[in-house]
Amino acid sequence: MNFPLGDKELRIGILGMTEGNGHPYSWSAMFNGYNKEEMETCGFPVIPRYLEKQPPETFGIPGAKITCICCTGYAEREEAEHMARAALIPTVYDRPEEMIGNVDAVIVATDDGNEHVDRCRPFIEAGIPMFIDKPLVNKEEDLRTFMQWRKEGAQFITSSCMRYAKEYEIFYKNHYELGKLFYICSPMAKKYETYGIHALEAMYPLLGQGFVSVRNTGTFERTVAHIKHENGCNVNVIQGIGMGGAGMLVIGEHGSRYLTAGDSYYCFKKQLDLFVHWLRTGEEPFPFAESVELMKMVIAGLRSREEGGREVFLDEIKVD
After folding, report:
1. Domain 162-262+296-316 in CATH: superfamily?
2. CATH class of the domain defined by 10-133
3. What is the pTM of this model?
């Protein structure tokens, strides 16, 4: 397949799903619109609530539609059919490979990094460009696989939606009033394996590349991670199953700010808009090297926890 895809009408397939992750519902609705009655029974009450706040003109991405869906793993055909009714998706497949030849791009809307190599392989080998939900990987060997695919010309991007939180975006570009940053606390709900990347990518643009190490002295249920950056700034990720809310405390030499994020629709929609822009132009939303460093931070945090809280340096994680 030639890439970038230019101005053609884009047929996008979406893959799901994993436990606790309703992205195939919400993301498909952002492309296609949705059936309110069906969406009410999606099993994720927050989704219809934030969708209903949006005026109709905010739905849709010009020239791009979710045209097919397939669910494997946590959910199968019955759930996929419900997603199709809720998000106006015309075709349901039993096997992901059935999409090949019928789509121009694929969204992997699952948040289990342990599965992504297997989920993506058929489409990478078929030359189909992909957006892969966060985290891309949880293991060093899987990161090496994706890096090798990239060297071979595979087209894929990945990100956390928290990078696009509208409450954070303007602050990323201008926080001069705080001076040099000394400390950031980036709390997050759920577990490090799936939602740790949200906490990491939320604060990442404040500091940029140059993270050195991660020490995670927490447990599976409660993450307590201390992260060092080469510029001297220290970061804590405090995270737990059952925790609510998210935000960031940012402290610099001249003052501090507590930032909160609350518009899920905006950050998801911007993430998808940029995916389509990348498909059409080949312009990545941000350098892929940032995603590589973020995945090293995910891996280092898991390794540190497994090794009793040892400080794990990112340069221990080899991708070449």
Report:
1. Dihydrodipicolinate Reductase; domain 2 (3.30.360.10)
2. alpha beta
3. 0.96
